[in-house]
Design a protein that fits this description.
Helices cover about 65% and strands about 10% of the residues. It is α/β, with parallel strands linked by helices. Strand 9 and strand 10 form a beta hairpin.
Length: about 600
């Protein structure tokens, strides 16, 4: 319950007005319910002629409220019988009972209706917080998490929170009110009988709690297995070409079936225990009624309890009414642990530490690079493995610096430090003498444009992909950027031109076309600093020529950091830095490095670059 209340404190406060309205309607409906049930006593008395007419109307008093209320109700019923007869009085009491029930059910409806904005609002807020948290977390977080697992938490876990925790909100705010009002009524009728009832209830509550803890444990296992399923699905969709190429459909199907069966077996146990809630509470409720019936009947037969037969029937009616809220509580006791298990998984993202701290008082840089980018005594590691060691590099304004080396030498990591996708462990990265940690991420990254080996596009139109990240871009500006990137002709050849959807990740386009759209996007942003991460390495010769021409236009008068495997594309760079095992081992122009007859010459020989 402590974990559940913590969740409510975090997410419910913005919806307090709905909560207050729901509580008010619940109180109203509970009081009306008791009042309507109280009509059972005079109805029984009329039917069985158990009550002598009452001639005295007592003044209202809080000291003996129950006695006064009973006397005065009997007084008015006696007057009605005298005036209209017993049969008509019975009809009038029945009609009044129906009217009170209408008011009571209306109150129940309004109490539930006012809970709906809370349920939907809280779930929306959790999704928005999750999404914003994912956007704010550093790139390093996602190298340790599977995308399928993150998707599972965003979808399955949030849905489970809605189905388990939020669906229990109504009963958890309604039922305590009903229980308090009903128990107060029971005490008013017979405190001896009620004391006996209270002594029996804790044993039932304890039993429900034990089963609820077992359910949460299994729910955590089920959600973890669901994440595994989503991760495998995401891997399958991403690697479908390789799966088909290696005729591995059977192997992948067996893997998925195995995980699916494991998930099914676990969820079967969870749902089986959850289905125990209703029959178990039904049985325990019946046992409670039987025990109270025996004890109350004994009091009436002995004449020691101060309770009449009609009052005892009223007592049993209220007691039976209290069983439904108690059953709902037991149902919530089964549902909530499932939701808390999902909330625990969601919180691993929501409460993940963001190591990418923003400066309290950021120093502004840009919008243009004035002097240089400098990496000074930079060391960087993943876990305990040093990826970059003692890097010292100056990139003057307007110059092109190329980073080359074998795979795993640290080229991409070095480039990622400049827009601060990662923070260095030692040393500093400076933009015009300002440490990148001392400026805002928005300010820093607004100065930079990226063109990556794999063009990252969105399932949107050509226009929106090129204008991505540039506010209020006009059609003319987008078209001009596409022309510079050699993309205008193939865009206009499509059915709707710039309004054509390009498919998931640009799946309707060739590799060269995707790359040129990516270049057009960078051209429109017009950044002073450009980072090219092997932008042509995955292209055929014709596409490479078109893309390289677009890149040459993009690089004019810009400070460029180019990562390249194809050395022919960077032979005219102002400086080439050769990385080996995280260190810059050679630097200079193409001809100078060839003359050294070292690492760079070896790389050129392998690619037959002269």
């Amino acid at each position: 319950m402590k974990e559940f209340l913590s969740v409510l404190r975090r997410f419910v406060p913005p919806y307090k007005k709905y909560l207050i309205a729901s509580v008010a309607f619940n109180i109203l409906s509970a009081v009306l319910n008791v009042f309507s049930f109280a009509l059972i006593i005079p109805i029984l008395q009329i039917l069985f002629k158990l009550q002598e007419p009452v001639d005295i109307l007592l003044p209202w008093s809080w000291d003996n409220l129950t006695e006064v209320a009973g006397n005065n109700l009997n007084y008015f019923v006696s007057r009605l019988i005298e005036s209209h007869g017993a049969s008509t009085t019975l009809l009038l009491l029945g009609l009044f009972l129906a009217f009170m029930t209408l008011l009571k059910t209306g109150g129940y409806f309004l109490s539930s209706a006012t809970m709906i904005p809370i349920r939907t609002g809280v779930v929306r807020d959790i999704r928005v917080q999750l999404y914003n948290k994912l956007l704010s977390l550093p790139m390093g977080f996602f190298s340790e998490e599977r995308k399928g697992d993150i998707i599972a938490r965003m979808s399955g876990d949030v849905n489970e929170i809605e189905n388990s925790i939020m669906s229990s909100l109504d009963m958890l705010f309604k039922n305590p009110i009903l229980i308090i009002v009903y128990f107060g009524t029971l005490i008013g009728i017979s405190w001896q009988l009620t004391l006996f009832t209270i002594l029996v209830l804790p044993l039932m509550g304890w039993f429900m709690g034990v089963v609820g803890k077992m359910l949460k444990r299994k729910s955590l296992m089920a959600q973890a297995l669901w994440s595994d399923l989503m991760a495998q699905l995401e891997e399958t969709l991403g690697g479908l070409r390789i799966i088909k190429a290696f005729v591995a459909e059977g192997k992948m199907s067996e893997r998925f079936l195995s995980k699916n069966n494991e998930y099914r077996n676990t969820i079967n146990k969870v749902n089986t225990r959850q289905q125990m809630a209703h029959p178990m509470s039904e049985f325990l409720g019946t046992v409670l009624i039987v025990i109270v019936l025996w004890f109350g009947g004994s009091l009436i037969l002995s004449g020691a309890g101060g309770i009449t037969a009609p009052s005892f029937i009223f007592y049993l009616t209220i007691l039976y009414s209290i069983i439904n809220p108690l059953k709902d509580f037991s149902k919530a006791g089964y549902n909530i642990p499932k939701g808390l298990a999902s909330m625990e998984r969601v919180d691993k993202i929501l409460q993940a530490e963001n190591t990418m701290k923003e400066a309290t008082h950021p120093i502004s840089v840009g919008p243009q690079l004035k002097e240089q980018i400098e990496l000074k005594n930079v060391w960087f590691r993943y876990d305990n493995q040093w990826v970059l060691q003692n890097i010292n590099l100056i990139i003057p304004r307007g110059k092109t610096i190329a980073l080359v080396g074998q795979s795993g030498s640290g080229k991409s990591t070095l480039a990622d430090l400049i827009p601060r996708y990662h923070d260095v462990q030692e040393g500093e990265v400076l933009i015009d003498g300002v440490n990148v940690r001392d400026t805002s991420l928005r300010n820093l990254r607004s100065m930079m444009g990226n063109v990556n080996q794999e063009a990252i596009l969105f399932n949107d139109t050509f226009f929106n992909n090129i204008a991505f990240g540039v506010e209020n871009a006009t059609r003319e500006q987008v078209v001009e950027a596409a022309k510079i990137a050699n993309a205008h002709e193939f865009i206009m050849a499509t059915e709707n031109g710039y309004d054509t959807m390009i498919g998931d990740r640009g799946g309707k386009l060739s590799g060269g076309q995707r790359q040129r759209i990516s270049i057009a996007r960078a051209i429109l942003k017009n950044p002073p600093i450009l980072i090219l991460d092997e932008a042509t390495s995955a292209l055929d010769t014709e596409s490479e020529r078109m893309v390289q021409d677009a890149l040459d236009k993009l690089m004019r008068e810009r400070t460029t950091i180019a990562i390249a495997h194809r050395l022919s594309t960077i032979r005219h760079a102002d400086e080439i830095c050769v990385l080996h095992e995280g260190k810059i081992v050679e630097r200079g122009r193409h001809e100078e490095l060839l003359a050294l007859n070292g690492h760079y010459k070896h790389l050129c020989d392998m690619q037959q670059v002269g």
